Every structure is written in C-alpha cells, then in structure tokens.
Amino acid sequence: xxxxxxxxxxxxxxxxxxxxxxxxxxxxxxxxxxxxxxxxxxxxxxxxxxxxxxxxxxxxxxxxxxxxxxxxxxxxxxxxxxxxxxxxxxxxxxxxxxxxxxxxxxxxxxxxxxxxxxxxxxxxxxxxxxxxxxxxxxxxxxxxxxxxxxxxxxxxxxxxxxxxxxxxxxxxxxxxxxxxxxxxxxxxxxxxxxxxxxxxxxxxxxxxxxxxxxxxxxxxxxxxxxxxxxxxxxxxxxxxxxxxxxxxxxxxxxxxxxxxxxxxxxxxxxxxxxxxxxxxxxxxxxxxxxxxxxxxxxxxxxxxxxxxxxxxxxxxxxxxxxxxxxx
Length: 327
Prior knowledge:
Blueprint: H1 4-61, H2 83-110, H3 118-139, H4 147-162, H5 178-213, H6 218-221, H7 226-259, H8 267-286, H9 293-317
Helix pairs in contact: 1-2, 1-4, 2-3, 3-4, 3-5, 5-7, 5-9, 7-8, 7-9, 8-9
C-alpha cells in the first residue's frame, strides 16, 4: 500500500532540491568568474615582472657609469576569493541532504527500494552524483568543478519531474528481488561516476584546445591544467568501469531468476553491453601508446552518450523485458 502523504513529501523535497541546486550553480558560476579573472591577471603579471628583472640585470652589466632604468613593479594580484565557491559547496551539501530525504521518503511511501522506474532511477543517480562530489570536495579543492556538477544534476532532476515522473506504486511480483536492489543500486552509482567523468572529460577537451591555441577564456583559466584534468578523468573512469561490469553481471543473474535466462538480447541488455564495450575501448585506448589522450577522451564522451541513449531512448521507445522501467 502506498502512503500518499510520504510520496507528496518526497516530491516537495525533490523540488526544493532543484531550487537549492540552482542557487549553488549561480554561486559556483560566480566563483569561476572571480578565480578565472584572478588567474588571468597573474598570468599577465608574470611577463611584466620578468621584464623588470631583465632591465635590472642589464643595468648591472653596463657598469658604474650607467644609470639603471627599472620597469615599474607590477603589484602581484591577491589570492582569488573563495567565498562564492564555499557558498556554492554549502548549498550543494544542503541540496544533497534534501535529495537524500526525498529518496528516503519515496522508498518509505511504497515500502521498497526506490529503484523501480525511470523517475526513481534518475533521482537516485543524481543523489549519488551529489554525494560523490560533495565528499570528494571535503578531501580536495574541487570548487572549480561545482558548476559542472550542479548544472547537469539540476537538468536531470527537471527532466525526471517533468517528463519521467511516475506516481509512487508497488512493483510487479517478479521484480521483488534482492538482485533488483543490488543491480540497480550499483548501476545508479556507476552512472553517477560516469556523469562526473563526462563533465571532466569535456572540461579537459575544452582546456586542452584553448591551451593549444593560446587563448584561454576566463572561466577555463580557473580550472587545473589540461594534463591534470585528463589524469583526473582517467582515474574516475578506472573506478566507474568495474562497477558497470558488476552491473552487467548482476543484471544477468537477476534475469535468470526473474525470466529463466541470463541473456536474451533485450534492447536494454544490448545497450548495457554497448556501454561496457565503449568504456573498455576508452580505457584500452588510454593505455595504448598509439592513441593520444585527446582522442581517447572522446571515447569516454561517446560512452556517456550511449548511457543517455540507453536511458532516454531505449527505455521509452523500445519494447522489451525492461519495459516496466519506462515512463
């Protein structure tokens, strides 16, 4: 039996989360604007300081009869203000707790794990995305990444509420299995990591292109160097890929228990395997000397594109054993 009061409270919590995430997004945008401008100022000040030192050295070599003309000292720009970034992170934590509450209330309203349809999958995946980013930011400075996490998180929640929303209800008996919880929980965590990984991959590609052209916009100047972004991207995918592998295996085990076969070429199964192949190709290309890091990173972006197709297209427009998870 569904508790409509708890279900409505869950909906309110998700809407409130979207509002707080929007505010966090604006704060992180302000942080990038401030730190990017300061980074550009420091880069511009460096040649001026070098020219001042060169003038002084030339005067020393000229002898005692020469008068040294020193270039005016350029004041060193102050350290970037982190206030907006810290505010954005605090709001992100608030949104994270709000979404955790929304997911918990959704589960309590139906007396099961909230993993039974597209809407529930989306809000749980966003919850894991926010948890991973927020916890990561406690260990390392990741304020520069906040905008690119809160933006997709807000868009996914908006799509979930406006396009994929399903009233809280019970699952069909064949789906009441512990393997549903295991399979879908690991899948949502994997998607969360791949979402962050895709954001990092796109930032790396943008920063690498800008550095190659020698024209780095203010907002990109606030980010780490392109090689650093690429290493972070690769490291995150190394963690996410085994989880997706487990998702594939756990799904096969659950399919055997629910439908009596491990593999049936269901559209959802096929695309889950396609995603696995694309990300395996990325990790292989990244470790192969014949591939540049830039070309390999495009495979990671393609992998996330396959995730979007699997979720937003296959679930809705393809009929199969997984049709229950559609809208």
